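User: Teach me something about this protein's shape.
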Amino acid sequence: MSKVFHTFSPIFDENSEILILGSMPSVASRENGFYYGHPRNRFWKILSDIYCVDLTTKEDRVAFLHKKHIALWDVIASCDIEGSRDHTICNVVCNDICGLLKKTKIKFIFSTGKKATLLYNRYIYPQTKIKTIYLPSSSPANQSIKYEEILESYQQLKICSIKKI
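Assistant: First, the predicted structure itself:
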């Protein structure tokens, strides 16, 4: 178990309307300095498939998020964790999600995975009063859910951005 700090900034701008929150970047993501950086994490492939775009480079991904008014961050600023195992997370300090919301037009908040959802609901929701929409984890550790099922669940992102429901 080691103390880990979130070392990269959220991706957002003043026009962001959707926020996607993970729990804490994995070891691979922290080493790469970017979100969902494990080569077998399905997050970027899912977004590529939903929106029919090529998201292979960090620059492509950031530009895409801005174009679609999607912000990306994590619930946790620091915690104790074993490797990348969310179930070992303890001693959580949360990121300033409320501060981010004040700088944006965010209306929808999605959480990727059970731990991000649990932590958001416990620590952040009482302040924001914005319910999170659960998305299954795209982590390679979450192989119990087929790719097609995860892809279908993530379609909610596109629906929110198109219809502004």
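Now, about its shape. The first strand starts at residue 2 and ends at 5. The chain has one domain: 2-163. If you'd like, I can walk through any region in more detail.
User: That's plenty for now, thanks!
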